[in-house]
C-alpha cells in the first residue's frame, strides 16, 4: 500500500515525496500528460499522503483518513450521486449555485468537468465558475488534518474568462492548502496560471507496463490485452475502459481519410469518410485528433527513414508503410500543423465536419483539389 502501487513516472513520485518529507509543499501543482496515465490517481494519492495519520511522506491506506480519501479512486460513483442530489432538471442558475464537488473527506475536494445532467449530459462538460468560487472560499479554511488538497481534474476545460477567478486564488495562495490541476498540456491553460504552478509532465507508460496493469485489473484474454496496450499508446486508464473493436475501427477510418487525402482522388468518398467520423459522438473531437496524431507520428518515423521504427499502430503497419511511400516528411509535418489548428479550433466550438473537410482537402495534391 502507498506510492509503491503507482506504476510509471517514478521521478514525479520521488519529487512529491520529497516535498512532503521536507514540509515544503507547493501551493499549486500542474500534472500535465495524456489522458489515462494516472494524473488524477497520483493527485489522490498525494492527498492521502499529505493527511495520512501514520506516515509523513507516504500513505498507509489503512487509517480512517486514508480510507475516506480513497473513495475518490472511483470518481464516477460520486459524480452520479452529486447529479442525482442536484436534480436532473437543474437549470443554469442551479448548476452554478449547487456546484458539483466530490468530497469524501473534509480536507480533500475533487472537481471534475460538470456534465450538468446524468441521463442526458452536455456534449462538452467543463469546470464552471460556481465550482471555482467554492474552492476560492474553502481554500482559506484551516484543515482538520495536516493539509487541504483541491484537485481540479480537466483544468483545460475552464473557459479563459472563468479561469481568471481561479487566478486570483493562485496570486494569494493559502499556506495550508495545495491545488492540483490536471491537463493534457500546459499550453491548454492560461500562461498566467501555468507560471504559478510547479509543473510535472507525465510520460506514457511502456507497453509492457500497460499489459501488466491489464493482467492484474481485468479479465481480458492475452490477445486482447496486447492489442489494448498497443492502441492505448501508454495510457493504462484508456486501455482498461477501451472498446477494442471500436478503437481499432476508429484508427482504420482515420487512416483511410489520410490515404484518400494523400491520393487527391475520390473526394466524394473522402467527404463521406469525414462525415462518418464527425458523427461519431462516442468520442470527442480532441480524442479523434489524438488518433490522427498517433498515425502521423508513425508516418513521420517511416518517411524519415528511421531504422526499426517503433510504431504506435503496429496492427496497421502494412497500410502505414504503403502510405509512407506516397508521401514525404514535409506532407506529414503539414498534416500535423493542420491538426494543431483543428485542435485549437475545438475550444471555439469549431464545426468538426467542416474542419475535417477543409483539412483533408488542404492535404490533397494541388491539381487534384475539387473546385468550390
Structural notes for this entry:
By secondary structure, this protein is α/β, with parallel strands linked by helices. The protein folds into two domains: 3-203, Rossmann fold, CATH 3.40.50; 246-368, Zinc Finger, Delta Prime, domain 3. The chain is 52% helix and 8% strand. Strands 2-3-4-5-1-6 form a six-stranded mixed sheet. β4 (148-152), α7 (160-171) and β5 (177-183) form a beta-alpha-beta unit. The protein starts with 9 loop residues before the first helix and ends in a 10-residue tail after the last helix. The model has no long low-confidence stretch (mean pLDDT 87).
Give a short overview.
By secondary structure, the chain is α/β, with parallel strands linked by helices. 52% of the residues lie in helices and 8% in strands.
| Rg from alpha-carbon coordinates | 22 Å
Average pLDDT taken over every residue: 87
CA-based shape: globular
Question: What is the second-level CATH architecture of the largest domain?
Answer: 3-Layer(aba) Sandwich
The CATH H-level superfamily of the largest domain is P-loop containing nucleotide triphosphate hydrolases
Instruction: Specify the CATH class of the largest domain.
Output: Alpha Beta
Helix content estimate: 40-55%
Number of strands: 6
What's the domain count? 2
Strand portion: 5-15%
User: How would you spell out the order of helices and strands?
Assistant: HEHHHHEEHEHEHEHHHHHHHHH
Uncertain spans: none
Structural class: alpha/beta
The major β-sheet equals: 6 strands, mixed
Oligomer: single chain
